[in-house]
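Progress report, Aim 2. The chain analyzed during this reporting quarter is listed below.
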Amino acid sequence: MRAHEIYFKTLTPDDAYARLCLACRLFGCTGWRRRFRMEMKGLKPQDLFFVASSEVYVAASNWLWRMFGGEELGGTRQGRGAAVTFTFGVQALWGQQATLRVVPLSGDAGGTLARIAFLLDTVARWGALRAKTQHGFGQEAEERAFTERFGLAEFPRWNDEELARSGWGKKRQSEYKRLRDRHPDWDAKIRTWREPAPPPKPQLRPLVIEKRSFKLAELPAVVNELLAQIEGVL
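Predicted C-alpha cells for the chain:
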C-alpha cells in the first residue's frame, strides 16, 4: 500500500474532503476520483481546416501544416508567402449541434452540475477550452460574449464620434475600445473601420477570433478562483 493510500485511509471522508482544494474536489486527484464524466454526441468526421488572422496565417501556417502531417499524411501545399494555400490529409470530428453531457459520478450531483455549468460558461465568455490556446485552438470570441452580455444584435462598428453618442458609460466604452482595437477590420491609424473580409472558405484562410488564454501551469489556481466564487451558494 502506497503512502498516500495509508494517509487517506486514516481520515474520515469529511476530513479528506476538507483537505482537498476546490479544483481537486471536482476534477479529482490521487486517492480521490473525479466527480463527473463527460460524453459528447453528434460529431462526424470532416476534412480538417483552420481559420486564423492574417498575421498568424503568414507566421504559423507552415507550422500548422507540418504539425498535422503535411505531405506525410497526404496534405498539399501550393504558392509561397501570404499566397500559400494548404490542404490536410487528415480529418477532424465536428458537429454544428454537438451535445455535451455531464454525468455526475457520486456525491452532490446538483452541486457538481452547477459547478461544471459555471466553469463552462466562464470559459465560453472569457477563456478557451483546449490545449495550446496560444496557437488559437479552442478559443471563444470575446466579441460574442460582449454582445450577449449587453443584449446587442451584433458587435457595433462605431468610430470614436459614434461611440461618444452611444450613451454608454465609461466602463462599457473602455471595454468596447479594447475589443475594437484588436479587431482586424479596425484601422487604428485613421480611426475608422475597413470593409469586412469575406467569409472564410473551408481551409486555412484569414479570420480573427478574439481570445484570452492562460498557461497550463496556472489552470489549478484559475479553477480554484472560479470555484471559490460559487462555493458559498451551492
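Residues 1-34 form one domain. The CA atoms of residues 2 and 107 lie 25 Å apart. These observations will guide the mutagenesis work planned for the next reporting period.
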